[in-house]
Amino acid sequence: MKKQLEITDRTRRxxxxxxxxxxxxxxIRKITVNExxxxxxxxxxxxxxxxxxxxxxxxxxxxxxxxxTRQTIxxxxxxxxxxxxxxxxxxxxxxxxxxxxxxxxxxxxxxxxGFLPTIKTELVPLVLPHIPISTxxxxxxxxxxxxxxxxxxxxxxxxxxxxxIDTEEFSQMMQALVLRGLSAYxxxxxxxxxxx
Length: 196
Prior knowledge:
By secondary structure, the chain is an all-alpha fold. It has helices spanning 2-23, 33-40, 44-50, 54-76, 85-89, 91-98, 101-107, 115-127, 140-160, 167-180. It is elongated.
């Protein structure tokens, strides 16, 4: 029985690995069962023993990746960090460290458009205790929505631009933008904006 479980796990793993390899080469919605079976070294009937279709495999791969990312964030987050202190210092670095290339593939233009909302639903609750905003704050959901959208939007753009900014500099920029907005980067001016 144990031997059969090992074979089952190994076979499923080969299909998932084949999926990620193909996802680096082409849009995930264009990956076919034929390509997956060829890459994994199995036939179509074996694929269908494990997954109903490519969407089922995508769903499995996403759930596995989210759990891996969740565990990484939990492992990195300091247990004794006071609410707000971590947000002011290195919360963004921690989230950033938990991201891997697979996350960027799914968030990118050739990825899964439904993945970003799933990331927010799954991962944002992990960091809420470290954000200095009370759930009683008026419009709390909008504030958290802004922070998470800004953070993941910046991560997505940074990846699409080939990570053209140093990791540390990018993390500091993201933190400054979320904490202080564009005013952290726009020089102050005595001129006021006028409508013409």
